[in-house]
Specification:
Structural class: alpha/beta
Number of helices: 22
Number of strands: 13
Distance between the termini: 68 Å
Strand order of the largest sheet: 2-3-4-1-5
Largest sheet: 5 strands, parallel
Shape: globular
Strand content: 5-15%
Helix content: 40-55%
Radius of gyration: 28 Å
């Protein structure tokens, strides 16, 4: 007979990764230590925080907003800085900008904005128990200045940052329609002089700061992020320094995965251990999760959430087995199909706006991702330099790779994202009109004819490039060198990364057609062999 009480205990145990990167109600690792350090130590008071979708902008803002009295906040992660900074006097305050839409007059909108600033700062100020004799708040510019002077006189090292997010909700149709809702919201804030007022207050009060949170556009460089909206903006926005969020660092991702039960709270840890748990993920599981998800915060969170849910559902905290891992990979691909498709769409938009050289370099990058002989997870610095400034910017800003100024290893994306990009690049190659597709709709069509014992002959369409690769393999089926394949398909020796990508795609295509059976084998020394030679011929 099933123990219903035990089932209830398992069911009632919260998944610690459910909304971890959104609320931080559980867990002690944000993955954003370096970003937070930059914000609180740089001395910068005007920041535009930008990043790709799902990179963690909202998560970081919510984390920064946690008050000093919270059981755990970003201040705990920066404990080493307490000797230099009074972290309890840093306050990040999100403004409710929706009320600005209640009026269409710039003067009224500015007054509403000032009221929101005053109320947010005053609430945090009073929560700290400062000056109980403070007079009734005056929600206008005069009252806001008076409040900031009082705070400055009492705690000169305090910092109060107001945060402007979701500005796309401010969009108005009378501002140029070709702009995005986010850009129209930014233009509205500028038109009602909210940005000018922020700059004036920053100049007057060192304790005051402002952060504008926006989603970066898929562009090949930072210079074009605001160029399309610049006619609608004053020079005040130039005072804001742009800070772009990237994926986690490798060290932060490892720390994220290695959290022990106690880091999710004593009560949660007690319930987890009462059900027989010891470690959430073993060291081997942590390595596998990092290999699959890479350091992208959204992918990492989703893998952790699903892995924990699987273990909970089977009522066993034991190690993930190979069938479990295959199931997880399939589920992640299913659940994140929209995210992956949007990532590819943004990459293509950024490349479309870049130079032809950047588009060619992207093909080289795909080749690096698909190298069959790759044993390291770290990108060769020379390969990184060869990608060029435009593509390097795109890969950083879209969260594909992380790169910091301080020299360190640049890690490849996780397997899920890498394989998806290779697959999509291969599909593009198969489309008519692309460089490596068939000559034309009316021109010759290329096929691989397959005759397996006991079955009728099959026709498998292939691109012109694949046709030449297969034709060369049929000439040298036992040992075909990369150089022979290059000359047979391209009539010259090409970049090895491009060659590797095309061979990866062809091998995968055949493997899928034959139900998982490897048809082209990659042999030691960079040579290839074709199995079951008698089954194949190419046309024309």
């Amino acid at each position: 007979m099933r123990d219903m009480r035990s089932d209830l205990a398992w069911t009632a145990l919260p998944n610690p990764f459910l909304m971890m990167t959104h609320t931080f109600e559980l867990g002690h690792v944000s993955g954003r230590i370096e970003d937070i350090v930059e914000i609180v130590t740089s001395g910068q008071s005007a920041i535009i925080l930008t990043g790709a979708p799902n990179i963690g902008k909202t998560a970081l803002i919510r984390y920064l907003q946690l008050p000093p009295e919270a059981p755990w906040s970003w201040r705990n992660e920066l404990a080493d800085f307490r000797s230099q900074l009074n972290l309890d006097e840093f306050h990040f305050l999100s403004l409710d900008l929706a009320s600005l839409k209640e009026s269409t007059q710039p003067g009224e909108q500015l007054n509403t904005f000032l009221r929101e600033c005053s109320q947010a700062i005053y609430a945090a100020y009073r929560r700290r128990g400062q000056s109980e004799e403070q007079a009734m708040l005056e929600p206008d510019l005069k009252g806001l200045r008076k409040l900031l002077r009082t705070i400055r006189n009492e705690t000169s090292h305090a910092r109060y940052f107001v945060i402007l997010e979701a500005i796309d909700r401010l969009a108005e149709p009378d501002i140029e329609e070709k702009l995005t809702p986010q850009d129209r919201g930014l233009a509205l804030l500028d038109r009602c002089r909210a940005i000018r007022t922020l700059v004036d207050l920053i100049d007057e009060f060192p304790i005051f700061g402002a952060m504008i949170v926006v989603e970066n556009l898929p562009r090949p460089d930072s210079m074009h992020q605001f160029s399309h909206v610049s006619p609608h903006l004053s020079a005040d926005l130039a005072r804001f320094r742009t800070m772009s969020l990237q994926a986690f660092t490798w060290d932060d991702a490892e720390a994220f995965l290695a959290q022990e039960p106690e880091q999710f709270g004593a009560d949660w840890a007690q319930k987890f251990k009462a059900l027989g748990g010891e470690h959430i993920f073993s060291p081997e599981e942590q390595r596998w999760l990092l290999n699959q998800a890479g350091t992208h915060p959204y992918l990492l969170e989703q893998f952790c959430f699903l892995a924990f849910r699987l273990k909970n559902a089977r009522r066993d905290w034991g190690a993930l087995q190979e069938p479990d891992k295959r199931q997880l990979i399939e589920k992640v691909n299913e659940l994140l199909s929209t995210y992956l498709a949007n990532t590819w769409k943004r990459l293509q938009e950024a490349l479309h706006k870049s130079s032809p050289e950047a588009e060619n370099k992207f093909r080289d990058f795909i080749g690096l991702l698909s190298q069959d002989t790759r044993t390291e997870d770290i990108l060769d610095p020379a390969d990184w330099e060869r990608l060029g400034p435009e593509l390097r910017y795109i890969l950083r800003s879209e969260g594909i790779l992380r790169y910091d100024i301080v020299p360190r290893a640049i890690h490849y994306p996780g397997a899920i994202l890498s394989q998806y990009l290779v697959q999509k690049a291969g599909e593009v190659d198969e489309q008519p009109g692309t460089q490596q597709a068939s000559s034309s709709v009316s021109g010759p069509r290329f096929s691989l004819m397959i005759t397996r014992p006991g079955t009728a002959e099959e026709r498998m369409p292939v691109s012109e490039l694949e046709y030449h690769l297969l034709k060369t393999l049929l000439q040298y089926p036992q040992r075909c060198t990369a150089e022979q394949l290059m000359k047979g398909a391209w009539n010259k020796i090409i970049e090895r990364s491009t060659f590797n990508q095309r061979m990866h795609h062809l091998r995968k295509k055949l493997k899928e057609h034959f139900g998982g059976q490897e048809i082209i084998e990659n042999r030691y020394g960079g040579q290839y062999s074709l199995k079951h030679v008698a089954w194949f011929r190419v046309e024309p």
